[in-house]
Protein: Ribonuclease
Amino acid sequence: MLNDSKQVTPEDRNELRGYIEANALAWAVAKVDHDEVDRINILKASFKAMHLALDELKIRPRLLLIDGNRFTKYKRIPHRCIVKGDSIFASIAAASILAKTWRDEYMQLLHTEFPHYRWDSNKGYGTKEHRDAIEKFGLCKYHRKSFNISPESSQEEIDFEVNQ
Structure:
């Protein structure tokens, strides 16, 4: 069932991804790399990635439904921000599924190159295991440098999310 990507099992997310990609009128996924996130911040980078994805759509939308409470205007297309929108609108849930599965696939590639960070299981988030690996091996070329990475920081205070 289509829902917030965090509420769907990885297997179901992957199945839904195939269905969405085959049946959506239009879809696109874009990424902003970790260096740019460090330069402009995570929120602006998220908006930029959304804009890049919108640039790739084959159909120009008449209204953008955005999951969250803010967004940077895109061209002259009106938008509506909806907190927890992925649990309300199928289109937002589908976008969430695509973003999560593409990101998880990317994290799997990073894991192949740097397995000691265990990106296959932590997906780049600041788990204890990930913080311990950073303490032991240091940051690699894919880590954002703009966040506090001390292992004693609580997970809520830090964000090791590795960006695409």
Observations:
- DSSP finds six helices and two strands in the chain.
- Residues 105 and 149 are 24 Å apart (CA to CA).
